[in-house]
Amino acid sequence: xxxxxxxxxxxxxxxxxxxxxxxxxxxxxxxxxxxxxxxxxxxxxxxxxxxxxxxxxxxxxxxxxxxxxxxxxxxxxxxxxxxxxxxxxxxxxxxxxxxxxxxxxxxxxxxxxxxxxxx
Length: 119
Prior knowledge:
Layout: E1 7-8, H1 9-28, H2 31-39, H3 45-73, E2 80-81, H4 84-88, H5 93-112
Helix pairs in contact: 1-3
């Protein structure tokens, strides 16, 4: 694989980190649902234990996002990875579209000027 093949691995990890971070925010938003249920008195011990899982999941997603973003800082820019096959296995169409748009934008940026980028 030459330097121009594939995508920079660090950028792939950052994008995954961003997706995880956004998922963590979405999970955190579920706390409002729990609060409404508690306010309306619709809770049981089992419900409260499961509701705590929301907080654990949010923290887990946020920690993974931070880990990937920090890890990406340590990866040399010359490390590249082919991501199209992996992306084609993403079953969530909106996520796949965001990842595809990111890949397309970077590919067109590489070829837009006609200049060769050397690392």
